[in-house]
Amino acid sequence: MRRDIFQAIADPTRRAILVLLTTQAMTPNAIAEHFDSTRQAVSNHIKILSECELVKQEQVGREIYYHLEKNKMKEIDLWLEQFRKLWENRFDNLDAYLAKIQNDTNEHNKA
To answer: Which residue numbers delimit the HTH arsR-type domain (predicted)?
Structure first.
């Protein structure tokens, strides 16, 4: 089953797992130590992140390490960029409007 990447990152625990993996690859047990939930629950979150290709597993000896799939995170960032630009433009317009109101008020008070 192909999962939706945005549903995957909507969960706060999965977002926290992604943040943990930004600094280093970790085993499932090491990840689970950071949460007050069962190892099985954390494994389920990791499974969902893996299905969305946000994390990748690597076998090192007898251990499995998970690491962040940076290219997939870049896809999310590119999608969000369109909204970032939209909101920046709206805030710029608001700043200009507020500056105009402030100038108009100052000129009115001088008169």
So the answer is: 1-88
For 10, the domain range is 5-68
- Tokens representing 40? 């099985």
Domain count, the chain: 2
Site of tokens 């433009």: 89
Centre a 10 Å sphere on the Cβ of residue 23 and count the other Cβ atoms it contains: 8
Mark 76-86 as b/e (b = at least 16 C-beta within 10 Å).
eeeeeeeeeee
Report the chain's C-alpha Rg in angstroms. Answer: 22
Same domain, 14 and 64: yes
Cα 8–Cα 1–Cα 82 angle in degrees, nearest 5 = 40
Q: Look up the CATH number of the domain holding residue 36.
A: 1.10.10.10
Q: What is the pLDDT of residues 8-18, one digit of tens each?
A: 999 999 999 99
